[in-house]
Structure formats: C-alpha cells, structure tokens
Specification:
Helix 2 runs parallel beside helix 3 and helix 2 packs parallel to helix 5. The protein has 2 domains: about 130 residues, PurM-like, N-terminal domain (60s Ribosomal Protein L30, Chain: A), CATH 3.30.1330; about 120 residues, Alpha-Beta Complex (Phosphoribosyl-aminoimidazole Synthetase, Chain A, domain 2), CATH 3.90.650.10. The longest helix is centred in the first third of the chain and has 18 residues. The relative contact order is 0.16. It has a 6-stranded mixed β-sheet with strand order 1-2-3-6-4-5, with helices on one face. Strands 8-10-7-11-9 form a 5-stranded antiparallel β-sheet, with helices on both faces. It is of the alpha+beta class. It has 8 helices and 11 strands. Strand 1 and strand 2 form a beta hairpin. One of its GO terms (molecular function) is magnesium ion binding. Pathway: Cofactor biosynthesis; thiamine diphosphate biosynthesis; thiamine diphosphate from thiamine phosphate: step 1/1. It catalyses: thiamine phosphate + ATP = thiamine diphosphate + ADP. Its EC number is 2.7.4.16.
Length: about 300
C-alpha cells in the first residue's frame, strides 16, 4: 500500500522535504525554527510565511475581520518567538468567486488592523480563485545585531516556562489572541533564554519539538500547567492554538529577575512547568496536540 501523509505526519514530511537541501553561506538559520534567518547588509533578515485555510483554521461562519486578524497575528507570533521585529508583509488571498465583496474587504481590514498595531507595512501580494478561502501571509523583518533566539540552544537542566494560560482556545482565543511581542523582547533582554518558540500546535506537540531540536528530553508537571478557567490539565497540554511563549532558561536565573517580570507584566503569568533532561532520561509524555494530516 502506498504511504500517505496521514501515515507519516507533518514533522516527518518536513524532514523529507528539507533533507539534503542546499544552502549557501547567506543562510544563518534555515528550516526547523519559527522563522528563517538570512544575512542582510546590516542586520540579520528574518523570514516567515504562514497559511490559514477555511475548514482547518476557521469556519465559514467565522467573522471576516477575525479571519484576517488571525492570519496576520500567527506570523507576528512566530517573530515574537525569536525576539525578532516584523516589518513588511505580502498577502496572498484565495477565494471562491461567490464570496461577497464586503466579506473579502472585511477580511483584509482584519489583516490591516493587526499589521498596523505592530507597525508592519503591507506592501503587496497576490489574489486567485479557489474552492475555499485561504490566506497566506509572508513577512520579513530584522534581528538587530543578530540578537535573535532559536529553539535549538537549550541545555540539560534548563527550566521550562510558559507565558499566560493554556487550553480552551476553541472558545475564541485562537481568533483574538495578541502576539507576545513586547514580552518576548523583554525576556530576550532580561533573562538568559536559551531557546524559545510559540505554542501553536499545543504544548504536547511543541515542547517535544523544542526538546528534539536541542537533542534533549523533558520532564513536565501537568498539574503545574497554567490553565484557562474551566480547562483540565489535559486540555492545557493538548488543545493547541494558545500562541503563548514556551521558553527554556538557565536554572541559575535569579528570583529577582522573575519578580521583575511580575512587576513589568502584572496581568500575565510566567509559569515554570518542568525542565530539560538527557533524552534517555526523559519519561514518557502523554500524547495530544494538533497534527496536520492526522488531526
């Protein structure tokens, strides 16, 4: 029987796509992180593209402005995960011909509003007909002085933290979240952050990705997960589309630094949920999270 995408899943498909991919010296960080990083004339250039698809990321009944808002915010969240600064965006808009013009304009208004709130310039794009509404946002930005954070530099013993609360995003957060841009830049400046990423497919998927990128395993305390009111630890672990930050920091980080976080962001929790260990010492973690081609 011929192997299908459902058989191998998203992560293995990407591994097969990029295996043996040729890159020249201009590439600083290629596939495998939240964004790509390449050499610029003065600063490192940061690149990202992301797609939202009707029936996967939103429904036909989703308010149009929230569709556009989500499409833009997802990419901004990836820039935040690397403590980079987004600057310019291109929008690809694919839709069936029967969609009302008013709805199309409302989608774009959502894109524009989110972009403007983060100082991002929409500089063009593409339109095409298709069988369903699809938005792709391609974005460029910068990482001054090459001060960006990858997901692959964590070390054994690093403490694992998450921002905010997890779980229950289907109740509306996945459409209305605010990317943690200011928080990410504060963390990069004030704490010894060894690795960071945003939580999009659920902690159950994204924490193993961060650990695997570092060649490590992890221990996590499900009971310690900061939960959205009404959510169980299992939902916080596996629901996905939280768009919070997951970070690995030095265990030597002072309590004073963590207290400064509380004073700077008094309404946003920063919670220790576990630590990184040697891969052979990692306990079996529960399954969960979103998997393209399988979920």
């Amino acid at each position: 029987m011929m192997q299908t995408l459902a058989d191998i899943g998203e992560d293995e498909l990407i591994r097969q796509f990029v295996r043996g991919l040729k890159q020249d010296a201009s590439v600083i960080a290629g596939p495998g992180d939240d964004c790509a990083v390449v050499q610029g004339s003065r600063e490192a250039l940061v690149l990202k593209t992301d797609t939202v698809v009707e029936g996967v990321h939103f429904t036909e009944a989703t308010p149009a402005r929230l569709i556009g808002r989500k499409a833009m915010a997802r990419v901004i969240s990836d820039f935040a995960a690397m403590a980079a600064t987004p600057r310019h965006a291109l929008i690809t808009f694919i839709a069936p011909p029967h969609i009302p013009v008013k709805r199309a304009l409302e989608v774009y208004a959502g894109l524009r509003s989110m972009a403007e709130s983060f100082g991002i310039n929409i500089v063009g794009g593409e339109t095409s007909r298709g069988n369903q509404l699809i938005l792709t946002v391609s974005m460029t930005g910068t990482a001054p002085n090459h001060q960006w954070i990858s997901r692959n530099q964590a070390r054994v013993g690093d403490d694992l933290y998450v921002t905010g609360r997890l779980g229950g995003s289907i109740q509306g957060k996945h459409l209305k979240f605010t990317p943690r841009m200011a928080e990410a830049h504060w963390l990069a400046k004030n704490l010894k952050v060894h690795a960071m990423m945003d939580i999009s497919d659920g902690l159950a998927q994204d924490l193993p990705r961060l650990a695997n990128a570092c060649g490590l395993g992890f221990e996590v305390d499900l009971a310690a997960l900061p939960r959205t009111p009404g959510c169980t630890p299992q939902q916080a672990w596996g629901d996905g589309e939280d768009y919070e930050l997951l970070l690995a920091i030095s265990p030597k980080t002072s309590a004073q630094k963590l207290e400064t976080w509380k004073k700077t962001f008094p309404k946003l929790k920063l919670t220790r949920i576990g630590h990184l260990v040697e891969k052979q010492d990692a306990p079996l973690a529960p399954s969960g999270g979103w998997q393209h081609f399988r979920s």
